[in-house]
Sequence to fold (100 residues):
Amino acid sequence: MKNILSKSIVAGLLLFVMAQAARAETTVYSIRVDGLACPYCAYGIEKKLNELDGVKFIDMDLEKGVVMVETYNVKLGDAQLRQLFTDSGFTYRSKKETTK
Fold:
């Protein structure tokens, strides 16, 4: 009887965790930035973005001046991004946000 109860509890917890993961929101940001000129610049921004909780993926197009950031259950605000890029020596222009 104890074994069945233990298995039921474990199964219930597993279902709860899976339901929470399904409700989690992934957001993709396309951020326009002035001043991206080289891979070293990109590395500095990537390092700053990776310090933020919830960042899953970062990609950059140096030619277009676009930084793609995918976050998990986190929203990035304009003021936060402006400060991050200013601190890194770049000019934040705008962002487009898409929720998955």
